[in-house]
Queue: 3 jobs
Job 1
Amino acid sequence: MQKIEHNAAQEVVLDEPIRAVKELKAITLSLNSLLGKWNNCDRQTRGLVGVTLSAQGNALKVQAFGACVPKPCDWGVVAGNAYADNVSGTNAIAFEAQFDAGFKTSILTGYLDNGTLVVENFTVFKDGSGRSSYYDRAYFYKA
């Protein structure tokens, strides 16, 4: 224990609060429920057609595919952040990731809802084209 003199007549004893912090264990989220290839339920979508969530160690990797012809546009792979449903949760149920394509930035967020991955896409154009920033929500099933 650490003793601190408060004044000449009084002594305050601290119960080493640092010990409690040292005893906390880092929680590593299990990514298993998110991992896999996810396809858009709407086969006629003009937005995202697929999302692949993978792990590199404990880190989440996110790859997105847009609706292009003749084959989907690969947005590349970026680091994502995974989230539990509460502060002591151990299973990831949601994610977010940011893609920068130069002419636009897209922020993807997603969460599991009864086996469906709900993905929201917030896109901002940076190319001076005059296109509006937009929001889209789509539902994905595990392939």
Note: DSSP finds one helix and ten strands in the chain.
Job 2
Amino acid sequence: MIKITHKGDFSKMNKFLSSAQKLQMKDVLDRGGQRIVASLTAITPKLTGLTSSKWGYGVKVNSKGAILTIYNSNQTGKTNVAILIQYGHLTRSGSYVVGRDFINPILELHIPKIIEDVWKEVSNI
């Protein structure tokens, strides 16, 4: 026969879980998304300005975590124009337009700050 006993209560765990529910992760990711979109808007090569004006972001928070999505909604057919600028593409005449790496430097600049802000928020529990 096995007998299990325990002393104490779950007040510390309840306090931790209550604090975890109050995390402002959406606000932290929202600020990061705004900074990334502002930087991408400023640095996107501008022929017509349409691609640079179509940057946006979304934050989704649920019980499993939080997701920050950065997107550009300028399409030509089914192809995203920002991706064509980033990686290069063939033209209809058969020539090749060389890509310009403008997205990765912005992400490398801002992601460490977002991680730092998320860590600060989690550390405050």
Note: The beta strands are 55-62, 65-72, 75-76, 79-80, 88-90, 96-98.
Job 3
Amino acid sequence: MEIGEQLGARYVLEGSFRRKGEAIRLYLSVFEAQLDLPVWAERFDIPEAKFDEVSDATIAELVSATVATIHQYEVRRAKDKPIEDLDAWECYQL
């Protein structure tokens, strides 16, 4: 993902919204920027009348879900990384 390279970011959060009846449909996605792989995506429907009142709690919930997903992805990524220094790996295991 070009923007990730420009910013030096490993992950990029992408979002969009559109009207869906009397609601606003919000789409959020997180991509692993170097490989342009989707890591997480979610859709949220917010009643149009309440769109301006989206609370800090709702935003915190979105951020928590994103951070938790990135953390899980990073743990998997670390486990899949080949061991380059067996002495360091042994020290880590102790």
Note: Strands lie at 11-20, 23-32, 37-47.
